[in-house]
Design goal:
Length: 239
């Protein structure tokens, strides 16, 4: 059973690769693991083989409870350029429960630290963006001090992505970047978001690598938002 209540960075078969698991299968697995809330955040349409705009438009008709688990329907939108433009229009984002924004190949070519940082901060300025997904990707160097300050200013969460910290992770050695994020958030007493980035059921609610680092840097558990689904919902409602 998971010691945490939610995971909101997960993907189903709708994201087009890595899994054949459906929302129903994901909800069943989340219930088995003791989660109270599960967020489905499919990739935005700029990523090859992912969801179309019509998919995201239809989410308002999806059931909010399955297998006793509260479901939120969001998106992992792609940052497309240095202006922070996303691949989902505001009229769709406004109807979702939440939005993660992220830099992905091949949607955005990595720039230098200044360019990448500006792209993320400008994406955070969008009132429909609630978190930056895997800001630890070493292919996209960032000024973390500025990123944390902007996250606080715009009321946006920074994600500690368990998949990035996995020995099999493909974003490079993200450990030092995540350590820096945690240390800066601890100094500002600002909460962070743990995410599995699970494609399918296998890793839903799995934060073992992130927890190892959290303990290593003595990050306060009261600043780990995943301890309470109610706190997450309160955070989202403040936007």
């Amino acid at each position: 059973m998971s010691p945490f209540e939610f995971d909101i960075h997960t993907h189903t078969i709708a994201s087009g690769h890595h899994t054949r698991d459906t929302v129903t299968a994901m909800a069943k697995d989340a219930a088995r693991k003791g989660l109270k809330l599960l967020g489905i955040s499919e990739h935005g349409p700029a990523l090859p083989q992912s969801c179309t705009l019509s998919y995201f438009r239809s989410l308002s008709y999806a059931p909010s409870m399955r297998m006793g688990v509260r479901l939120l329907y969001g998106a992992e939108a792609n940052i497309l350029d240095a202006s922070g433009r996303l691949d989902l229009p505001d009229e769709i984002l406004a109807r979702l429960d939440y939005c993660l924004a992220a830099m992905h190949l091949p949607c955005l070519a990595p720039g230098n630290m200044e360019e990448n940082t500006k792209a993320c901060i400008r994406a955070m300025a969008n009132p429909h963006v609630h978190a930056i997904a895997h800001p630890d990707d070493v292919r996209y160097p960032l000024d973390y001090r500025r990123l944390v300050e902007a996250a606080i200013d715009f009321h946006v969460l920074l994600e500690i992505n368990n998949s990035s910290l996995s020995p099999n992770g493909y974003r490079g050695n993200a450990r030092q970047n995540d350590r820096t994020i945690l240390e800066l958030c601890r100094k500002r007493h600002y909460p962070i978001l743990l995410s599995s980035d699970s494609h399918g059921c296998q890793n839903i609610g799995s934060f073992s690598y992130a927890l190892e680092l959290i303990r290593e840097v003595d990050f306060p558990m009261e600043l780990v938002l995943n301890s309470s689904a109610r706190r997450l919902l309160r955070f989202l409602s403040q936007l």
